[in-house]
Structure formats: structure tokens, C-alpha cells
Known about the structure:
By secondary structure, the chain is α+β, with helices and mostly antiparallel strands. It is 22% helix and 44% strand.
Amino acid sequence: MTVDTTATAIHVDRVLKATIQQVYDxxxxxxxxxxxxxxxxxxxxxxxxxxxxxxxxxxKMGPHVVRGTYTELDEPRLIAFTWRWDxxxxxxxxxxxxxxxxxxxxxMVLDHTGLENAEDVANHLQGWEGxxxxxxxxF
Length: 139
């Protein structure tokens, strides 16, 4: 896994031993998201999605709630959505997940942009790393 961060963005590049459709489904199907999409496995996790451009999603991770809107969907290659924590005054940031078939699996490139500052990047990076460590366990 390759991870790069800037003052306001996270870039993760990783190859998963799964088909492109399996990875796309893991990002878009609530019953699969609830198996990996929380950095703390001890927290209760619920996911609601309206999988269409303009559709909303809500993820409840223990005491934390993130919500947003799908901005781009191109099955099985692209999922893009806004990201905003409940209880904050921050503008929504953007997450883009691009998937490509490669030898041995699927290359997943995640970009999370529009974060506020280095502390926000560090906090989100910690969360994404926790999530992405759990992702391969569902394949």
C-alpha cells in the first residue's frame, strides 16, 4: 500500500486480491460496508445508502456519524462522494475511489481531498488506514 498526504488531501494506492466487482460491491453494498467500514471493530456500525448520483448515504460508527452524497458512479470502476461529519461546521470534503483490474486483483486508488488542515488529514488517514486494513477480510 502506498499512502501520500498533503496539507489537505490523502492519497492511497493499494492492490487487493479480489475482482474489480467484489471491490466495487464492498464500497457500495450496505451489508458489505458494515463488515469493514469502521476503523474500530468494537463500535456498532450501521450504513444506509441510496446508490445513485445525487443519492445520500449515512454511516454511523459508534458515536460518530458521517454523511454525504454520491457525486459519481461508474460501476465497477468509480465511486465518488462528499464526506461530512455530523456536529461540525466544516465544509464537505470529497472522496474518490478508482478501481482498475491488474494482475492478481484490483488496484484501488483512494483520494480524499478538501480536508481542512494537517491535523484533519492525520485524523482521516488514521481512520482510512483502520478501515482499509479490514477491507481484505471480506474477500
